[in-house]
Amino acid sequence: QVQLVESGGGLVQTGGSLRLSCVISGRTLALYTTGWFRQAPGKEREFVAAIKWHYSTTRYADSIKGRFTISRDNAENTVYLQMTSLKPEDTAIYFCAGDTKRRTRNFYRAGSTDFDSWGQGTQVTVSS
Description:
The protein is mainly β. It is built from no helices and 11 strands.
């Protein structure tokens, strides 16, 4: 497993931008995929974006496609989520996740249960 620490959340107005960061430590050589998920009050955790750790392959949820960008800096062991054109419905706790067991081999169908390591989350609130 790896340890993940998110930062960068906060309060922003509709149309604003935020960049979330996720610093990863531990068995980073075992990382296969990293991703971002979010959970709004009263709702289930949902997939946002994912990126393969050793390749540039990315995947996005339809709800944020074109507005959010996932990227990573392997030298800094950090994954980013650049969020633009934020909407009130983007309000949620955002979690960073890592797969060190290659459960996300089916990358385009991977879900939360395929990730074995999770951060504590960072709150994003978008005001209308």
